[in-house]
Task: structure prediction
Amino acid sequence: MKVNGKDYRTVWINGSSVFLIEQNLLPFEFKIHEAKKCQDTCKAIKDMVVRGAGAIGATAGFAMAQAFIEAQGDLSYAENGKKYIEATRPTAQNLFYATNRVFNAARNSKTPSETAIAEAQKIADEDAEACRKIGEYGNELIKDGSNIETHCNAGWLAFVDWGSALSPVYAAYRNGKKVFVYVDETRPRSQGARLTVWELKNEGVEHAIIADNAGAHYMSQGKVDMIIVGADRIASNGDVANKIGTHEKAIVAKEYDVPFYVAAPTSTIDMKCKSGSDIPIEERSEDEVLYQTGLTKDNRLEKVLVCSPGSKAFNPSFDVTPAKYITGIITEKGIVKPSEIKGLA
Ligand code: MRU
Result:
């Protein structure tokens, strides 16, 4: 990914510090956040300084490495660190994939810190490469002149690089195809309106933000050729957990014969979940629904109440789209039907 012409990754480690693109400030300010200790990195995941399945996974891997550095040979310290990291966010499978991989690689190593850092780096590099391949496969589905709808942010900010749902769009655009993206604003945190469009603008891809409830209108008019979304966890029967609102889009897409694709690396598949009902759904603070943060005319970031004072709100962060609504899942190993996902895990 390039930001203002400079190459970046969403997350990296240098010494014992983890560095992250501070996503809460985007698109208004581009800032790098430094997390010096495992505890700081956990806070960054919880507070959504970093977010998106792949980016959370890579960050959790680096946090696990920080725990081994801090442990100085005390395995119980690293074990507690693992529990602490795994308590930050419950839904994204990549987080658990990364903590388990780093922990298992380092636990019996003679040089646990070095082994943990190397394994975490490997996970981050694999994530970037998997997303690049998702772009190659997904590009084959995109015709010149396509109008594509997406939900939330499953671009390079949500992974280490490239992204999942947006990687095919970037690949198509770089291959000279004309593409237009309808970006669902994705309330309550507006990852679409704030992050996806910022990415698309950086990449030069034509796009427009649409209100979350405008999808059916455009689909019914034949203006959407396909939908591509990301995934936070995929159950072994092909049900997919993704940002709240995804399920509705999939139902509407089926009604209007719009192909509905999910793009995700195989590290997002959780074979322990037999169906979507086994996937834990994160409930976040009602403040995310009640308040919005934006830029004032004099360039200050301000949080304001956007709902009637005194009412409470419910805030499930994800929903589950049943496999029957999904046309195909684009992975780094190829495009499969939801029923074929088991074979890839
Ligand atoms: O709560 P977030 O922003 O971490 O949500 C995760 C997501 O970004 C989306 O659900 C996305 O579509 C899939 S993860 C790349």
